[in-house]
Recover the amino acids of this structure.
């Protein structure tokens, strides 16, 4: 009998791994689509505003374009609740949001000469991308087991950052040849390609039932309330809300800082948007590796300690009268490497604490708390830099990033036994 069963087990395992790889590839692609508009916002918008004579305060306030990412918990229960049985629970939201995202990019291509119209288009892109993110998060929670979270969150963060790399670094770098029209058309074509792959994917019809999903809004809200009141939930929210404060303040103002040294828009696109993002991708792989080898809290701790070095180096750059180009590039790459590792490890920690019955809504709340923590920091960064200088800003960012590590000790005491193992 054993000779008969063994080939069946082998074939079953191969089928399972093929399914996981296919779903990870789709997850990767969908997160890349979401990263396109945010990459344009975080890399291109500050440069465009600075070139058109906007103040540092205005550059900092431009991060408010990401507000839909903060508000998405308001409509995330609807994504968990309503769907078409014909399309599938998650595809019912994945396909329309991608279509609207591509359409908005084409609208931006025709109206980019007007700065208000361009900013409004970016805001709409973030709205559709944030709603898409709710469905993709739910898709990942539905299909990834506990042992796959490290790889799944690597696909999540790497995919998102590749989208940012394309939308912010590579296309900004090449914007002198293809212009903003070419940038938006290229992004719309990429979204359409991923939408086609999503359309061809056959979503398992019972995936939402196997995870114990509730069927009414009242049940969804009740499950969320219980999930957010469990032991350690408060410490988790505090960690998620604070781990990016310092890094966000430094990141928003580092681009104007480099421009203030006499470097060009192409230099920013090449160093920060391209080289920095490549190292951020490598950091995401490192963070996923840490999450598969250590407990999630320990992985976050290691990555958080690594991040302090590059932030200190940015502080040193601001205190140096004429920092060399090689130092700027090296510090940029190191900061993105450590930041990428920390983000991936943190997202794995967040997903490990999600109630799968309301996976999209619960993870969306945690992700929104992350945005709530870092977005106001970006808003304030311009005011701080304009009044105190870049050195004081980078110094405060370093101290804030070190203080966050103190919250990990009480969180570790509330970790589930399975996570500690």
């Amino acid at each position: 009998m054993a000779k008969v069963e063994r080939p069946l087990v082998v074939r079953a395992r191969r089928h399972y791994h093929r399914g996981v790889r296919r779903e990870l590839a789709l997850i990767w692609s969908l997160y890349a689509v979401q990263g396109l508009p945010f990459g344009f916002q975080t890399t291109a918008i500050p440069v465009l505003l600075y070139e058109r004579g906007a103040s540092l305060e205005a550059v900092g306030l431009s991060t408010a374009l990401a507000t839909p990412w903060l508000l998405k918990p308001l409509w995330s229960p609807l994504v968990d609740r309503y769907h078409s049985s014909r399309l599938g629970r998650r595809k019912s939201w994945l396909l329309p949001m991608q279509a609207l995202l591509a359409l908005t990019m084409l609208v931006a291509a025709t109206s980019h000469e007007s700065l208000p119209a361009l900013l409004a288009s970016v805001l709409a892109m973030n709205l559709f991308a944030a709603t898409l993110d709710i469905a993709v998060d739910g898709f990942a929670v539905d299909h990834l087991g506990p042992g796959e979270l490290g790889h799944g969150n690597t696909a999540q963060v790497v995919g998102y950052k590749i989208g940012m790399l394309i939308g912010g670094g590579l296309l900004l770098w090449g914007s002198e040849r293809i212009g903003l029209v070419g940038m938006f058309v290229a992004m719309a074509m990429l979204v359409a390609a991923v939408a086609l792959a999503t359309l061809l994917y056959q979503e398992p019809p019972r995936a939402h039932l196997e995870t114990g999903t509730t069927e009414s809004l009242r049940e969804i809200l009740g499950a969320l309330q219980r999930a957010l009141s469990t032991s350690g939930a408060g410490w988790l929210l505090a960690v998620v809300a604070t781990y990016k404060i310092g890094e966000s303040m430094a990141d928003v103002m580092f681009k104007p800082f480099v421009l203030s040294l006499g470097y060009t828009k192409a230099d920013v696109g090449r160093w920060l948007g391209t080289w920095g993002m490549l190292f951020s991708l490598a950091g995401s792989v490192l963070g996923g590796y840490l999450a598969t080898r250590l407990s999630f809290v320990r992985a976050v701790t290691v990555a958080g300690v690594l991040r302090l070095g590059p932030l200190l180096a940015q502080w040193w750059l601001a205190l140096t009268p004429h920092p060399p180009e090689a130092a700027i590039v090296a510090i940029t790459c190191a900061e993105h490497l450590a930041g990428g590792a920390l983000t991936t490890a943190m997202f794995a920690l967040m997903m490990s604490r999600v109630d799968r019955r309301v996976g999209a809504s619960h993870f969306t709340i945690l992700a929104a708390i992350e945005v709530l923590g870092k977005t106001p920091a970006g808003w304030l960064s311009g005011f701080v830099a304009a009044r105190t200088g870049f050195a004081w800003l980078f110094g405060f960012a370093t101290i804030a990033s070190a203080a966050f590590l103190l919250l990990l000790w009480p969180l570790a005491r509330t970790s589930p036994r399975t996570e500690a193992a």
